[in-house]
Write a structure and sequence with these properties.
One of its GO terms (cellular component) is mitochondrion. Pathway: Amino-acid degradation; L-valine degradation. Belongs to the HIBADH-related family. 3-hydroxyisobutyrate dehydrogenase subfamily. It comes from Protomyces lactucae-debilis. The chain is mainly alpha-helical. The chain has two domains: 5-101, NAD(P)-binding Rossmann-like Domain (Rossmann fold), CATH 3.40.50; 106-232, N-(1-d-carboxylethyl)-l-norvaline Dehydrogenase, domain 2 (Orthogonal Bundle). Helices cover 52% and strands 9% of the residues. The strands form two sheets. A three-stranded mixed β-sheet has the order 3-4-5. The chain has a two-stranded parallel sheet with strand order 1-2. Helix 2 links the parallel strand 1 and strand 2.
Amino acid sequence: MLPNSEHVEACFADGLGAANKKDRLFIDCSTIDPFRSGALAKQLADKGMGRFVDAPVSGGVKGASGGTLSFMVGMPSKETDPRVEQVLSKMGASIHYCGKAGAGLSAKLVNNYLLGLNNIATAEAMNMGLKLGLKPSVLGQVINSSTGKCWPSEKNNPVAGIVPGAPAENDFEGGFGIQLMLKDLGLALAAAEGAGVHLGAKDYALDIYQKVATQYPNKDFGVLFKHYEAMSK
């Protein structure tokens, strides 16, 4: 798992992908550009350098420590190469086969675009509820037993006292870093543009994450709540 497309490509440019090794398997859990990942998979296959599979992951720090991660795999099915599931099943509880090379990354970016928007909405809604005089515990119970429930509200609520062990309990230390959310958002927007997809919320989402990442670097992405809280004072 590496930070960017350039880092993954450099591994093979430096000789990792020697020829005449068709049976080798490379599983890449990085969140990178799906088009570049797919091109790398084709390049390695064409040169007989092995099978390269994109398998980005979701589930956060808790999922990693608990072995309950979800993998999105750029293969049509587990029968394409059973070795992939043998490896990933040791780390995660869910393995989704999404299609051709790069499809796992496409699925991950779609998911994280939605996650980013849900996180914005959760921060705004929690701040609104508190300003209207609702108790945090009551508001959390209402949302998480009603139609507004989402991962940021239920598992990573940005208000302390609602989700035990959430980053909000520790001044937003740990968790899913806001810089990583910003990176994934940028990748998602680039992929959407490449596919000719209109995203109506993209400009606001990108702007708010850029601002808050500058204000609160190295914090969990739930720190957006602090931004909205400060704006309402």
